[in-house]
Amino acid sequence: FRRKKYEYQETLVKITEEAARSIYTDELIEKVCKCVYNVLYPRKMCVLLNTERGFVLTGCIEHGEYKKTAERPVVLSLEDPLVEWVKKHKRVIQRDQLDKDPSYQKIKKSAKWFIENDAEMLVPLLLKDNVVGFLVLGKKESLKKYTFDDLRLLENLGRNIGSVLNNTLLHEKIIERERGLRKKIESEVQKRTKELQESKLALLNMMEDVDEANKKLLEAQEKLQRSYEELKRVDEKKDEFISIAAHELKTPITAIHGFSQLLQNDKIIENKEMRKKFLKIIDKETKRLGNLVTDILDLSRIDLGTIKFNYQKVDLYEVLESIKREANVLIREGLEINYEIEKGLPKIITDRERLVQILLNLINNAVKYTPKGKITVGVKKEGAFIHFYVKDTGIGIAKAQREKIFERFYQIDSSYTRKKGGTGLGLSLCKEFVERLGGRIWVESKLRKGSTFHFTLPVNKNENLNKTK
Q: What domains are there in the chain, each with its CATH number?
């Protein structure tokens, strides 16, 4: 990027693409500082990051040399009037406008730190209505003033980098969760090893027959080894899930960012059909990202034991109408979807949101593994339960894999499924929800013929509690 003149749009895209390649926050901040310096040449530039303590000084570049801040002092509180002003106005704060613009009056006191440090520009890094950080730029090396194109570049860069920064922070949270799981597994292995040693001493003291004691000790060791192998298998699956989740999170963000950039092109803005097509893609990828984050949060709540269910009287016909609207968006060319809904279905006591989540997960699964053909959604009453099923004419599931598909992080291993991606959470969450709501879930399938996923839910909450017991 190092040149005297630059083309605003091209430079914005290049800096954003360079930043988007980062998966760690410190790496991202260093890249942004160096890229902006090589275009605008500020004498000094700092990055403030939103944390639980407030906005902390994270990294600086001075005369082209980048330094990571070790102590990370708090510069602004989360409730500072300056932060509220940025949330409201969503624009860059300019030093030379502090005395001229009336809207700056409320924040002049808060801007004291920036004035003392000779800051010329305060650029908010935005994600919707949230401020995830700030870029603070000093005077240019040349002492020339910042131009209109400079201001326009910084404002748009603040929005783009805000999105990428949020992505790296989410990735680091996933890594942190991985460390916690690993520590938990190591603690469990140590605990069981200690129990084994205690068992060994007890057996030797209690049994006169040394051979019998050794036999039981061997059995205990084999049991421990099996437990360890199981914990190791779960750990490997978790590592695979973290890698997949990071990729799945980045894919829709990349698509959203790319098509958002295209929509800034004047020719595309004037083309109504193309604009409509791009907005539809952005909407689809946004929903996909939202569903993935929901699955990850549900998994976390289940592990922590904080997941809650909102029982209420649910009209199944109203739910199915909502499902039809959602499912129509998923159906592509070469696929058709039919509904077999029994008349006279009663209202049931259950969690409406979880029921919709289960059905959409199963329909989405059917769409994903049915290249072309037919999907059927059915509902009927069977005694004190309602029987739901989603049937497809897709690739089917081998007998050896049917018992494992409801396991967490499990994915069917085939060339077709590898192309489709996914995290391996959908069916395991369906099983968790169905069983906690008092029902059961199972699958019937023939390879290359298709699959039918069934689940039941009780009509009454009392039935729910009895069946759960």
A: 8-169 (3.30.450.40), 172-304 (1.10.287.130), 311-468 (3.30.565.10)
